[in-house]
Structures are given as structure tokens and as C-alpha cells.
Specification:
Blueprint (H helix, E strand, L loop, with lengths): L1 H9 L14 H13 L3 E12 L2 E12 L3 E8 L1 E7 L3 E5 L5 E6 H8 L11 H4 E8 L5 E7 L6 E8 L5 E8 L4 E11 L17 E4 L5
Parallel strand pairs: 6-12
Antiparallel strand pairs: 1-2, 1-11, 2-3, 3-4, 4-5, 5-6, 7-8, 8-9, 9-10, 10-11
Length: 215
């Protein structure tokens, strides 16, 4: 048996594969772009960890996305919290509040522009300066860089993605020390997403106010 195996190896009929070759930063960025550009809608479980300004909180829920430009963050922890974008405005509501923060989408870009990746609106290799790649956990890779135009605000930005381009997490560290980390799991591709899912229903007794982008 050993001689037969050696003969097959010598003839090039049997090959032992070594460790998977690490893609370049631009190759993985292109896979991320392709994966999310090809979607019409997306549903995924998220966990958000916020650290800074004397706070350290962990929240979670389900994110539903639909092109063009619509997203709905339905929180289960804390239950009832909601962040919704209808394509023109973003709405932020916490249970028990009488005010609903309403923010034009163009002002949301500064805080949540990394999440536009999930809507397929961004090309990583063009949007990030000094793009680099490093091995991550469980066969994933970490892409790091600074979003263009945000150099004075963002100290570091990291996207962890699998080799097929599926994003597993994002981490944004701002220059003032605030760190926002989003982890994603259970991605469902092109799930049913009705237009009515992205219409904000004003709670009884609440009213709209011009607000700041949520954290």
C-alpha cells in the first residue's frame, strides 16, 4: 500500500493539500462587496457592545435590511427598543420615551456608514485607506482601515469576514475612545421583507423631535 501511494505521488495523481492560502486584502474586500451587492434583503441576529462615555452596555436583537437603503433594528435586549431607517429618515425609540429621535439619513452616515456594507452600498477597497488583512478566528480574516473622510473621528475600523465574504463582526473605535462592536450570526439571505416593515409607527403619546444619530 505504501509503495502504491508513493508511486501515485510521484506521478502527480495524489496531492496533499496544505493550509488554505490567505487572500489579499483587496481579494477579500471584493468578496465582501460581491456577497452583499448581490442581495435584495437580509436578516441577521446582532449583538452590539458599546463602551465609552462611562458606559459599557450589551444589547441584541434582529436586523432586517432591504434595498434600497432600508433597515430595521428590532431589539430583544432591551425589549421594545427600535432603530428604523426608511430610506429618508432614521427613527430611534426606546420603550417608555415620549420622544422619537428623527434624523435625516445623510446625517446617519457619519455614525453608521460601516453598516452600509450590509446594504451593498460600499466598496471596501475604495472606502478604506491603508487597507490591511490579518488572520482571525475560525478561518475568518480581519480587514482593517480608516473610512475616508472620517480620519479625524475614527481611530480604527475592523471588519471580520469569512473567506466567502460573509461579515461576522464590525468594530469601530473613535478618536475619543468610544468603541462600538457589532457581531452577526444566523444570516438569512433574501428573506421576505415587506415595505411596511420599514414604516415607523409613532407610539401613543410620543412625538417626533430632531435628534442626533443613535449609539
Amino acid at each position: 500500500m505504501k509503495k502504491r501511494l508513493l508511486l501515485l505521488l510521484a506521478c502527480g495523481l495524489v496531492r496533499f493539500s496544505g493550509p488554505a492560502q490567505q487572500p489579499s486584502a483587496t481579494e477579500l474586500a471584493a468578496k465582501v462587496d460581491h456577497h452583499y451587492n448581490s442581495l435584495h434583503s437580509l436578516e441577521v441576529h446582532f449583538t452590539q457592545q458599546y463602551e465609552g462615555m462611562g458606559m459599557n452596555r450589551r444589547e441584541e436583537g434582529v436586523l432586517l435590511l432591504k434595498k434600497p437603503g432600508r433597515m430595521r433594528w428590532t431589539y430583544t435586549r432591551p425589549d421594545g427598543k427600535l432603530f428604523l431607517v426608511d430610506g429618508k429618515f432614521g427613527y430611534f425609540y426606546s420603550p417608555g420615551d415620549t420622544e422619537v429621535q428623527q434624523v435625516p439619513v445623510k446625517k446617519l452616515d457619519d455614525m453608521r456608514s460601516p453598516l452600509s456594507l450590509l446594504l451593498g452600498h460600499t466598496q471596501l477597497s475604495k472606502e478604506l485607506t491603508d487597507l490591511r488583512i490579518a488572520p482571525g478566528a475560525d478561518g475568518a480574516y480581519a480587514l482593517t482601515g480608516i473610512p475616508k473622510g472620517m480620519e479625524k473621528r475614527v481611530a480604527s475600523f475592523e471588519v471580520t469576514a469569512a473567506a466567502d465574504g460573509t461579515i461576522r463582526s464590525m468594530r469601530v473605535e473613535e478618536t475619543d475612545g468610544i468603541v462600538n462592536t457589532f457581531s452577526f450570526s444566523g444570516e438569512a439571505v433574501n428573506p421576505p421583507a415587506k415595505d411596511s416593515d420599514f414604516v415607523f409607527q409613532l407610539p401613543a403619546g410620543a412625538h417626533f423631535v430632531e435628534g442626533l444619530p443613535p449609539v
